[in-house]
User: Fold these one by one.
Assistant:
Number 1:
Amino acid sequence: MIPGMDLETPEEYYARVAAATDAEGRLTVAVEEMPGWDIYPYEVDSLRIKPLRPLDDAEPPRRGEVPEECWCTDPDAQPPVGGVAWRNERWRLALASESKVPVSLFLEPLVHCDLATVPDGLAGEMGRLVVAIAAAVEELPSVGRTQLYRFGDGGAHLHLFFLGRPRRVLQFRGSPLLDWEENLPALPVEVHRANAAYVGRRLVEAFGGEGPDWF
Ligand SMILES: [Zn+2]
């Protein structure tokens, strides 16, 4: 923190949001914003926002918050359920255990850090990997665009999600993809692995390392 700057507190932020709720503590559905877009999966007339909960006392600990208890203490002992499409000595690109879009991958460093604490020596490589993964995903015939996410609210160890937005399914564009995705049928494992293997092999071409671990 930079000392001496008068920045808004959590209480001040929350109070302003709470002041916008109705007698039941509910916000109004913003029909002029995303809920009203034609790419939003739910019909506005059926929507009601859950009552706003009280401000929590603190941020809860996440999985792997204590480095000694994180999977990265022994990466090979806790491999990703879906498999690894590519890895080198510092990173691995894993498959989500189940995908509903053409490809769902997550990139994670093998050393313990979060997005705000990536060591200088890894940050540049992360940038090049993000570019290369995005490009490879967008080469897949069934993908129209790469979507990139980092939430970080569940796990303390950095993981960047790459989702392939289905090509020509224009209703799935933009951030509503995550809501659509929850409701889609699962992709067959062999289709997911074939798409992920393509991305992994592209990374081997560009960076060396090891390709898919399921062959
Ligand atoms: Zn870790």
Number 2:
Amino acid sequence: MTTAPLRVGIIGSGIGRSHAEGYATQSRVTIAAIAGLDERSKTLAGSYGARHYGEYAELLAQPDIDAVSVCVPNGLHAEVTLAALAAGKHVLVEKPLARTPAEGESMLAAAKAADKILMISFNHRQRSDVQYIKQIIESGRLGRIYYAKSYWMRRAGIPGINSWFVNKNMAGGGPLIDLGVHMLDIAMYLMGEPTPVAVNAATYAEFGPRGQKGMNSVRQTVEGKYEVEDLATAMIRLDGGATLQLETSWASHGPNGDDFGIILYGTEGGAELQVVDYHNVKTVRIFYDEANGTPVDLVPNIKPGGGHVDVINNFVAAILDGAPAIPSAEDGLRRTQVIDACYRSSAEGREIRL
Ligand SMILES: NC(=O)c1ccc[n+]([C@@H]2O[C@H](COP(=O)([O-])OP(=O)(O)OC[C@H]3O[C@@H](n4cnc5c(N)ncnc54)[C@H](O)[C@@H]3O)[C@@H](O)[C@H]2O)c1
């Protein structure tokens, strides 16, 4: 087991900034180095008194680094993770685990062979409001959940019309693999990890190819055309008969700017999470009927919190204390398998059995 202080490196400085903020809350961690090809990476390294490297391989060659956060474009997750594990580092990889199940499987196998922690950053699952709903479900208050609708819909939120996000090879897909993976993760986590048995999905690209509905972005840019979907919808059949509807878009003529959430329908009650434009107050409602049949909507006052800080806390505890590495790479792989099946279902115009 690695001993404190844990010396970490962060590769990539977009969401990598949130990882730095998380590590900075940990008394047993030193941020030793940050790698990145952009000015942001140099600035971030400077603000934490860390060394800066350009290419990720330079950081991985440093023997004093015990663990790394992999915060690079999706297409590099497998490559950088495999190199990091080969260099003897523990790895926390950003979502999605990988572009394909084959890539994901190679990452899990490499972590096992190297006997290192591999964990995934599903930060939204760690939100305090999602954790609250999890507790309500585990208390039995909602009964058996037989249907859920999980979604992340944006009106004009393509993350940079010339960014790596719209390049199929670098991203693996559009909003489904980017935002949908979070909402699939939250749904499967809250529903108790039922096994997905079949998916029926459709994808659309109505605005991206016309150069419309992009966000102002400082993301890494790429040459070339818009190659991924800008809206996806999927019906996922789960073992035991429950179903999940998953909807996601970066661009649509929808009602809200940025709107994510989930509605869970149980035999004894329901629960809703809705986060509009990242507004974090009163995001949860619980629905049930009183004995006399009166419908009740409960609006708990949940303190906003969780997210990356909790993911990083779990990663550090897994390395230093042998605590469970949650959210697990196995969960990451299961989500990748469903998303891959959704893309195949859309391409082939039929249901895909898993
Ligand atoms: N969990 C979340 O809420 C969340 C939010 C945003 C992004 N992400 C994920 O984080 C990852 C990065 O997304 P982003 O928005 O930060 O992208 P970004 O374009 O803003 O940043 C990418 C970073 O990777 C660096 N990089 C690229 N190639 C490199 C190389 N060869 N060596 C070293 N550094 C390299 C770039 O210099 C840059 O700093 C993606 O997988 C994305 O899905 C997660």
Number 3:
Amino acid sequence: MTKSDPYAFASIAAEQIIKGMGVVSLPIDPKAIARGRGIEVVAKPMQSEGVSGMLVRFGNDFAIAYATHLQNEGFENFSVGHELGHYFLPGHADAVITGDTGSHLSRAGFSSGNKYEAEADRFAASFLMPRHLFYPAIQQAGSGLAAIENLAALCKTSLHATAIRYTQCTRDPVAIIISRGGTIDHCFMSATLKNIDGIDWLKKREGVPRNTATYAFNQVVDNVLHGVRVEATSNFQDWFGGRRSIEISEDVVGLGRYGKTLTVLYDINVPEPEDEEDEEALIESWTPRFKH
Ligand SMILES: [Zn+2]
């Protein structure tokens, strides 16, 4: 986490609450924590598309409703965590609810450009996956999509939220990509991967590279809905450009009703800079020179 991260404070606030409560093991149960604070928590079918939950205020009393349409416990926990973000983060309740009685409809899940929604999302991720418990869990989790699945099962969080949190916390060079059809919806790269020089960062709304397992996967609509899972390999250059043609692992899974695909790129073993220089010097020494 860097100083330039505008949401770091939301993360730290969430982690301090978990530490302050003396919670020492995963999973975190956001519904129980909310109820422990006297907040009523109810499941509710939401009418409008994309609504994940709701924070309701009557003066000093609060209630949380969470959407159940995705039938995904991880998403429900995240939705409740998001509403707790509005409850706990300074200024949020007053900003998202006008007056001292009313309600706020949330669209949780990292796609909103709204500052308060983005802060509440970050709060939720850190509340459910606080670093002091998540770091040790990563050590035990394995690698690739399997690691993210193990962590999601441990934390009772969605694959999507867990994958994003994983890239924020792992020391390995890893990228996760959320795509729909031929388009990258959004993506996250770990700090170690970002620090590799001479690569293009994956960008939002860019096309999925054609020569990849993800591209082929997304050609079959049922793969997404049925949660099909593929372990493949691809070339580092296809995803990140640059001059290193190395094989990396590419795991792909359909996210079911969420309608999108999760890709995990890992096993990225970029040679040490000294080795690369040696190699370049060798190629240079063998390359014939021509006079113009
Ligand atoms: Zn919200």
